Amino acid sequence: MQRSLFLLMVMGQCSFLACHQYHFIEDKKTWHDAQKYCREKYTELATVYDMEDVRRLQNAAKNQTEAWIGLRNAIDGNKTWHWSLPGVEFKENETNWGPEEPNDEGSNENYGVISKDRSWIDISRTKKHPFMCYDDRPNAQEKFILVKEDMYWTEAQEYCRQNHTDLVSGLKQLNDPKVISLLENATESCCWLFGLFRDTWRWSDGSQSSFRNWDHHPNREDCAMTTLNGESKWKSDNCSSPKPFFCYDEEVVLIKENKTWEDALYYCREHHYDLVSITGPDQQRMVQERAKRADSPFVWVGLGYTCTLDFWFWVTDEVVDYKNWASGGKIDECDMSGAVDRGGQQEWFSKNDSMEFNFICWV
């Protein structure tokens, strides 16, 4: 089938504004009973991916004070390193620790600072340092900002989120020439806080979301709740305490069958709604979580290319404004469609649409 004709057949569908739908449940239950209820009635206790999700929870439960979310302290106590910026995945083989670091002195060094030579050091939450923010807002004058005021790590994170986007996170940002220049020319401090932290908290649905919105630092209790006033900060509480809670519904599903792009499209439309579209960071993070579980090296999404009209399109009719192409991964040729890689950073690649991969559908 010619792509120009196929394009006319697949466009004209509705668009999606959210990747998951939250449901506020007023009945007060313990955390474990809330988890059981969500798994029976919906999908799971709520996973939260970013500040936009925080605002969605707040709007879904107006005039309420607090509610359980799906975050719980791991029983095994194993600590895992994360990046503060949502969607940036920490990888053990992509680090730059200084000599004999991380040494976890006193078993409580759970945050990172970066030195002028760009090596990393782990520190405790009681240490104050200046810090580096990242800003990807459309009106941002600078993408990387050194803030010379000393703060605790959680205070620095809150400052960056309120005034910019987040703490600088991930090797891609840390290796940016602007960041390197800022560190080399900085004379105010030996070390700067950046977006590296570790904890023992895990999401009920197994998601790897690193987003946290704690009110300073969680106490010794094992289950997380969100407050629903002001900044909707999170606190930990006794899991047996009855509270209202948030569930969520899946709006996408990974199909672990290998099909061509066109067969995947028809499958999604016959059994669900459509091949998934990625029109912003929220959808990208949602697709990332599913792509990691795939059985094939790539996963089809609803991104097609028409060589007759010479442009990429989403089958759900959204404009391809948001982009996450891998370096060298975009090939503008006939018979190409878009796929997300299972490994790496789950970036986009052009693949011949006769190849067979797993795929992700809107439900």
From TrEMBL:
Entry-linked PROSITE patterns: C_TYPE_LECTIN_2 (PS50041), PROKAR_LIPOPROTEIN (PS51257)
InterPro entries in UniProt: C-type_lectin-like, C-type_lectin-like/link_sf, CTDL_fold
Domain of life: Eukaryota
Keyword annotations: Signal
UniProt name for this protein: C-type lectin domain-containing protein
Pfam family, one: Lectin_C
SMART domains reported in the protein's UniProt record: CLECT
Signal peptide: 1-19
C-type lectin domain ranges (all copies): 17-134, 144-248, 247-362
